[in-house]
Amino acid sequence: MKGKFLFLGTGGSMGIPVIGCPCAVCKTNNRMRPSALLTIGDKNLLIDVGPDFRTQALTFGIKKLDGILLTHTHFDHIAGVDDLRIFTFLQKASLPCLLNDDAHKDLQTRYHYLFEKNSKAAKLDCTVLERDFDDTVFCDVPLKYLTFWQAGMKVSGFRFGDLAYVTDIQRYDPEVVRQLLGVKMLILSALRYDESPVHFNIPEAIAFAKKTGAEMTYLTHVAHEIDHDETNAQLPLNVQLAHDGLELNFDGY
Ligand SMILES: [Zn+2]
Ligand SMILES: [Zn+2]
User: Fold this and answer.
1) Residue 237 C-alpha to ligand 2 middle, in angstroms?
2) Ligand 2 centroid to 8 CA: how many Å?
3) Total number of domains in the chain
4) What CATH number corresponds to the domain at position 83?
Protein backbone atom coordinates (compact mmCIF):
# COMPACT_ATOMS: atom_id res chain seq x y z
CA MET A 1 0.00 0.00 0.00
CA LYS A 2 1.35 3.43 -0.94
CA GLY A 3 1.27 6.03 1.77
CA LYS A 4 1.79 9.76 2.27
CA PHE A 5 3.09 11.27 5.45
CA LEU A 6 2.52 14.96 6.13
CA PHE A 7 4.22 16.79 9.00
CA LEU A 8 1.55 18.97 10.62
CA GLY A 9 3.88 20.21 13.34
CA THR A 10 7.59 19.76 14.04
CA GLY A 11 8.12 21.94 17.11
CA GLY A 12 8.73 21.06 20.73
CA SER A 13 6.15 21.33 23.47
CA MET A 14 6.12 25.14 23.46
CA GLY A 15 6.01 25.51 19.68
CA ILE A 16 8.02 28.14 17.80
CA PRO A 17 7.92 31.06 18.23
CA VAL A 18 7.87 30.56 21.99
CA ILE A 19 5.49 33.05 23.61
CA GLY A 20 7.35 36.25 24.48
CA CYS A 21 10.74 34.95 23.31
CA PRO A 22 13.07 37.56 21.75
CA CYS A 23 15.56 35.00 20.32
CA ALA A 24 16.63 35.00 16.66
CA VAL A 25 15.10 31.58 15.96
CA CYS A 26 11.72 32.65 17.31
CA LYS A 27 11.83 35.68 14.97
CA THR A 28 12.32 33.62 11.80
CA ASN A 29 11.23 30.01 12.44
CA ASN A 30 7.71 28.60 12.79
CA ARG A 31 6.98 25.14 14.10
CA MET A 32 3.69 24.00 15.48
CA ARG A 33 3.40 21.30 18.13
CA PRO A 34 4.30 17.79 16.92
CA SER A 35 1.69 15.92 14.89
CA ALA A 36 1.33 14.24 11.51
CA LEU A 37 -1.25 13.09 9.00
CA LEU A 38 -0.82 9.71 7.39
CA THR A 39 -2.78 8.97 4.24
CA ILE A 40 -2.68 5.35 3.25
CA GLY A 41 -5.12 3.71 0.86
CA ASP A 42 -8.28 5.78 1.37
CA LYS A 43 -7.63 6.32 5.07
CA ASN A 44 -6.55 9.50 6.83
CA LEU A 45 -4.90 8.77 10.15
CA LEU A 46 -3.84 11.50 12.55
CA ILE A 47 -0.82 10.90 14.78
CA ASP A 48 -1.32 12.89 18.00
CA VAL A 49 -3.70 15.78 18.42
CA GLY A 50 -1.80 18.59 20.07
CA PRO A 51 -2.81 22.12 21.08
CA ASP A 52 -2.28 23.41 17.50
CA PHE A 53 -4.59 20.84 15.95
CA ARG A 54 -7.31 23.30 14.90
CA THR A 55 -4.80 25.56 13.12
CA GLN A 56 -3.13 22.52 11.54
CA ALA A 57 -6.45 21.15 10.26
CA LEU A 58 -7.29 24.55 8.73
CA THR A 59 -3.79 25.16 7.34
CA PHE A 60 -3.51 21.74 5.69
CA GLY A 61 -7.18 21.37 4.71
CA ILE A 62 -7.97 18.24 6.71
CA LYS A 63 -11.60 17.45 5.92
CA LYS A 64 -11.85 13.81 6.92
CA LEU A 65 -10.25 11.67 9.62
CA ASP A 66 -10.62 7.90 9.83
CA GLY A 67 -8.63 7.29 12.98
CA ILE A 68 -6.30 8.72 15.62
CA LEU A 69 -3.04 7.21 16.85
CA LEU A 70 -1.81 8.58 20.16
CA THR A 71 1.81 8.23 21.18
CA HIS A 72 1.23 9.33 24.80
CA THR A 73 -0.78 11.83 26.80
CA HIS A 74 1.54 14.75 27.47
CA PHE A 75 -0.14 18.12 26.73
CA ASP A 76 1.74 18.77 23.49
CA HIS A 77 0.35 15.51 22.04
CA ILE A 78 -3.30 15.49 23.16
CA ALA A 79 -4.47 19.00 24.04
CA GLY A 80 -6.43 19.36 20.77
CA VAL A 81 -8.64 16.37 21.45
CA ASP A 82 -11.76 18.52 21.95
CA ASP A 83 -11.37 19.86 18.40
CA LEU A 84 -11.93 16.36 17.03
CA ARG A 85 -15.60 17.02 17.81
CA ILE A 86 -16.28 18.50 14.38
CA PHE A 87 -15.15 15.25 12.74
CA THR A 88 -17.49 13.14 14.88
CA PHE A 89 -20.31 15.61 14.02
CA LEU A 90 -19.60 15.67 10.27
CA GLN A 91 -18.91 11.96 9.96
CA LYS A 92 -21.75 11.03 12.34
CA ALA A 93 -19.59 8.36 13.91
CA SER A 94 -17.13 8.01 16.74
CA LEU A 95 -13.44 8.18 15.81
CA PRO A 96 -11.36 5.04 16.20
CA CYS A 97 -8.36 5.76 18.43
CA LEU A 98 -5.33 3.53 18.96
CA LEU A 99 -3.34 4.04 22.15
CA ASN A 100 -1.49 2.21 24.93
CA ASP A 101 -3.14 1.24 28.23
CA ASP A 102 -1.52 4.03 30.27
CA ALA A 103 -2.60 6.60 27.71
CA HIS A 104 -6.12 5.19 27.74
CA LYS A 105 -6.34 5.46 31.54
CA ASP A 106 -4.95 8.98 31.54
CA LEU A 107 -7.28 10.12 28.75
CA GLN A 108 -10.27 8.82 30.71
CA THR A 109 -9.17 10.88 33.72
CA ARG A 110 -8.28 14.09 31.90
CA TYR A 111 -11.09 14.00 29.33
CA HIS A 112 -13.67 12.02 31.36
CA TYR A 113 -16.57 13.77 29.58
CA LEU A 114 -15.56 12.20 26.24
CA PHE A 115 -16.42 8.85 27.75
CA GLU A 116 -19.76 9.80 29.31
CA LYS A 117 -22.94 8.43 27.82
CA ASN A 118 -24.80 10.92 25.60
CA SER A 119 -21.73 13.19 25.60
CA LYS A 120 -21.86 15.96 22.99
CA ALA A 121 -18.07 16.07 22.96
CA ALA A 122 -15.81 14.25 20.51
CA LYS A 123 -16.44 10.54 20.64
CA LEU A 124 -13.45 8.21 20.60
CA ASP A 125 -13.72 4.51 19.99
CA CYS A 126 -10.53 3.37 21.74
CA THR A 127 -8.50 0.28 20.91
CA VAL A 128 -5.87 -0.36 23.56
CA LEU A 129 -2.52 -1.86 22.52
CA GLU A 130 -2.14 -5.16 24.33
CA ARG A 131 1.63 -5.61 24.39
CA ASP A 132 4.79 -3.54 24.31
CA PHE A 133 5.79 -4.74 20.83
CA ASP A 134 3.50 -6.29 18.26
CA ASP A 135 1.89 -6.07 14.84
CA THR A 136 -1.68 -4.94 14.51
CA VAL A 137 -4.16 -3.60 11.96
CA PHE A 138 -5.86 -0.27 12.65
CA CYS A 139 -8.50 1.14 10.28
CA ASP A 140 -7.40 -1.50 7.73
CA VAL A 141 -3.79 -0.25 7.94
CA PRO A 142 -1.21 -2.85 9.06
CA LEU A 143 1.39 -1.48 11.44
CA LYS A 144 3.94 -2.39 14.09
CA TYR A 145 4.03 -0.65 17.43
CA LEU A 146 6.80 -0.35 19.98
CA THR A 147 7.06 0.94 23.53
CA PHE A 148 9.44 3.04 25.62
CA TRP A 149 9.07 5.27 28.68
CA GLN A 150 9.44 9.05 29.00
CA ALA A 151 9.69 10.31 32.60
CA GLY A 152 7.61 7.37 33.80
CA MET A 153 5.00 7.69 31.04
CA LYS A 154 4.54 4.88 28.54
CA VAL A 155 5.05 6.09 24.95
CA SER A 156 4.16 4.24 21.74
CA GLY A 157 6.06 4.44 18.47
CA PHE A 158 4.56 3.28 15.19
CA ARG A 159 6.00 1.70 12.06
CA PHE A 160 4.11 1.53 8.78
CA GLY A 161 6.35 -0.50 6.49
CA ASP A 162 9.06 1.79 5.13
CA LEU A 163 8.35 4.61 7.54
CA ALA A 164 8.34 4.86 11.33
CA TYR A 165 7.35 7.63 13.76
CA VAL A 166 9.18 7.67 17.10
CA THR A 167 8.78 10.73 19.30
CA ASP A 168 9.56 11.73 22.87
CA ILE A 169 12.27 9.12 23.28
CA GLN A 170 15.36 9.21 25.50
CA ARG A 171 15.71 5.80 27.20
CA TYR A 172 14.74 2.66 25.38
CA ASP A 173 15.03 -1.10 25.33
CA PRO A 174 17.23 -2.56 22.54
CA GLU A 175 14.06 -4.20 21.20
CA VAL A 176 12.96 -0.74 20.00
CA VAL A 177 15.94 -0.67 17.62
CA ARG A 178 15.30 -4.24 16.46
CA GLN A 179 11.74 -3.35 15.51
CA LEU A 180 13.02 -0.46 13.41
CA LEU A 181 15.77 -2.30 11.53
CA GLY A 182 15.52 -1.83 7.78
CA VAL A 183 13.20 1.17 7.96
CA LYS A 184 13.80 3.58 5.06
CA MET A 185 12.40 6.75 6.59
CA LEU A 186 12.66 7.32 10.32
CA ILE A 187 10.88 10.25 11.93
CA LEU A 188 12.57 10.86 15.24
CA SER A 189 12.31 13.50 17.94
CA ALA A 190 15.37 15.55 18.86
CA LEU A 191 15.03 18.60 21.05
CA ARG A 192 18.27 20.59 20.64
CA TYR A 193 22.06 20.12 20.89
CA ASP A 194 22.15 20.32 24.71
CA GLU A 195 21.22 17.19 26.62
CA SER A 196 17.73 16.72 28.01
CA PRO A 197 16.64 14.19 30.62
CA VAL A 198 13.54 13.22 28.59
CA HIS A 199 14.45 13.74 24.92
CA PHE A 200 17.25 12.79 22.56
CA ASN A 201 19.48 15.69 21.73
CA ILE A 202 20.64 15.87 18.11
CA PRO A 203 23.83 13.74 18.52
CA GLU A 204 21.80 11.06 20.40
CA ALA A 205 19.18 11.05 17.66
CA ILE A 206 21.86 10.65 14.97
CA ALA A 207 23.41 7.73 16.91
CA PHE A 208 20.01 6.07 17.34
CA ALA A 209 19.15 6.51 13.66
CA LYS A 210 22.46 4.88 12.73
CA LYS A 211 21.62 1.83 14.85
CA THR A 212 18.36 1.31 12.93
CA GLY A 213 20.10 1.63 9.56
CA ALA A 214 17.45 4.13 8.39
CA GLU A 215 18.24 5.50 4.92
CA MET A 216 16.82 8.89 5.83
CA THR A 217 15.97 10.38 9.21
CA TYR A 218 13.77 13.43 9.72
CA LEU A 219 14.02 15.17 13.08
CA THR A 220 10.92 16.61 14.70
CA HIS A 221 9.84 17.95 18.14
CA VAL A 222 12.59 20.57 17.79
CA ALA A 223 13.01 23.41 20.29
CA HIS A 224 13.86 27.08 19.70
CA GLU A 225 17.58 26.62 20.29
CA ILE A 226 17.71 25.21 16.75
CA ASP A 227 17.60 27.31 13.59
CA HIS A 228 16.21 25.33 10.67
CA ASP A 229 18.48 26.35 7.79
CA GLU A 230 21.67 26.75 9.80
CA THR A 231 21.25 23.33 11.45
CA ASN A 232 20.27 21.48 8.28
CA ALA A 233 23.42 22.79 6.59
CA GLN A 234 25.53 21.19 9.36
CA LEU A 235 23.67 17.87 9.68
CA PRO A 236 24.62 14.77 7.67
CA LEU A 237 22.69 14.59 4.39
CA ASN A 238 20.70 11.57 5.60
CA VAL A 239 19.60 13.29 8.84
CA GLN A 240 17.67 16.50 8.34
CA LEU A 241 15.24 18.62 10.30
CA ALA A 242 11.68 18.22 9.08
CA HIS A 243 9.46 21.27 8.73
CA ASP A 244 5.72 21.84 9.04
CA GLY A 245 4.11 20.90 5.72
CA LEU A 246 6.88 18.53 4.58
CA GLU A 247 5.36 15.54 2.80
CA LEU A 248 6.95 12.10 2.35
CA ASN A 249 5.90 9.19 0.17
CA PHE A 250 6.41 5.70 1.53
CA ASP A 251 5.39 2.07 1.03
CA GLY A 252 3.27 0.61 3.80
CA TYR A 253 3.16 -3.08 4.72
ZN1 LIG B 1 12.98 31.64 21.19
ZN1 LIG C 1 6.28 15.92 23.43
Assistant:
1) 25
2) 14
3) 1
4) 3.60.15.10
